[in-house]
Design goal:
The chain is elongated, with a radius of gyration of 22 Å. Helices cover about 75% and strands about 5% of the residues. With about 230 residues, it is mainly alpha-helical.
Length: about 230
């Protein structure tokens, strides 16, 4: 009975905070009411308030700052990242699943960026990253590879995909770092050509060349990580 009461109170607090967000009573970066005030307003225990706030903090909705209060942050990709981490711990997914998924989604991202390619500042920045990547050190290439793919996502103009892909990239980037630190010269050249091909296809309006460059990019990654040299469509 006590457990059911606590669950109802927890849900009441969660709904209260969500309603504040929906009505724009609180905005990103602003502080929500104190635990004491929420408990008093809703006639619930402070323990239920803390439980709800902890859950929303783990989801990336709130940020708990010691001594300052609880703030709306909207860092939802942190929640996605925790779900992915748990899937790995439970062996419900693996590196190959993530790589295949990222390849598929990046083709969708490319489609969106292609439709928005005219006067797109992010595509210009992709070109800058691809150019710097050509002669960069291994450490610099890691950062530039991340910058290149992030600019492609930004060029697509879809905030949900940006959040979701960023959470995947947090995991994926560790593997990319390992690949770039010890990649054979011919495979590194293939990655450089893929980056250049993706950028040029957006700049020149050559859709088929762009999708071919994305497929070539992930074929190289598959070859280096998994020893899989079969082309993907």
């Amino acid at each position: 009975m006590e457990h059911e009461k606590n669950r109802r109170e927890y849900e009441k607090v969660t709904e209260y905070i969500y309603n504040m967000i929906a009505s724009k009573e609180v905005m990103a970066g602003s502080r929500i009411p104190s635990e004491r005030d929420i408990a008093a307003n809703l006639s619930v225990s402070r323990n239920s308030v803390r439980e709800a706030i902890r859950m929303m903090d783990s989801m990336g909705v709130l940020e708990c700052r010691q001594g300052a209060g609880n703030f709306l942050c909207g860092n939802i990709n942190r929640g996605f990242r925790q779900v992915l981490d748990m899937l790995f711990l439970l062996h419900e997914t693996d590196m190959e699943d993530i790589c295949r998924f990222r390849h598929s989604v990046e083709k969708t991202v490319y489609d969106m960026a292609y439709e928005r390619r005219d006067n797109n500042l992010y595509i210009t920045r992709m070109g800058e990253a691809a150019h710097k990547f050509e002669n960069a050190s291994a450490a610099q290439q890691t950062a530039l590879d991340k910058e290149f793919h992030y600019m492609l996502i930004k060029a697509a103009g879809n905030h949900f995909l940006e959040i979701f892909m960023e959470s995947i990239s947090d995991i994926y980037q560790g593997w990319v770092n390992a690949v770039l630190s010890d990649i054979p010269n011919d495979d590194m050249q293939a990655l450089k050509e893929s980056h250049s091909g993706i950028y040029k296809s957006l700049k020149d309006g050559d859709y088929d060349a762009g999708t071919a460059a994305i497929n070539a990019h992930y074929q190289t990654i598959d070859k280096v990580i998994f020893g899989n040299d079969k082309p993907e469509s």
